[in-house]
Input
Amino acid sequence: MVKGSPDSKRWTHFHSALQLAINRAAHKWTYEDFQECFALWCKEEPHGAEGIFNTISRHMEDQIHASCETLFKDFNVRDSINVLHRVVTDARSRKQCGETEAEDIWKEDLEPRAAVRARIVPVLESEVEKLKATLQSASLEEENQASFEQMKSNVQRQREADAKTAELLEIFDEVYSRWSKLPHDEIGLWALQTTENLPPIKPT
Output
């Protein structure tokens, strides 16, 4: 749409209806409803509670307005609705004049396929980029999951090795304890006497 040209009735009615809907949505929750939720506070601090309620309502309305304006800007809604209104108006005018068999002439030198591509291709390219980012994120997630599984396996093997080590240490402690209780002096004396009483080894 040419800048500076007046908005169509279709856009004006649409925008006015939207503003009314936003206003009703933001103020549908009345102060009476607010009082039911915060009865004690509203009773003890009526002025402060009412001020907070009004602030919340205005904030909700402003946020909805801002979000809608962002969408309008991102998708060129205003100009698109104005163009739609002009197309519909021209079509009705041609129909009233009996020009029902003529080709569309609302915009010269523009093939329908080219118009569709101009709208759809950027959207598809954007979706492709999003898909690439998602796939890359999924790949990283798979790598992270594999690393996590490897770490869990390493931890499990370490725990098993620690358990075996602890078991061997317990056996060693038990053997040492039993060994410590043996009469080593008597065993030494017996070994000495046994050695002395053995017959001498004859040379062959």
In short: Helices lie at 9-26, 31-37, 39-44, 46-74, 77-96, 112-181, 184-197. Residues 170 and 176 are 10 Å apart (CA to CA). The chain has a mean pLDDT of 79.
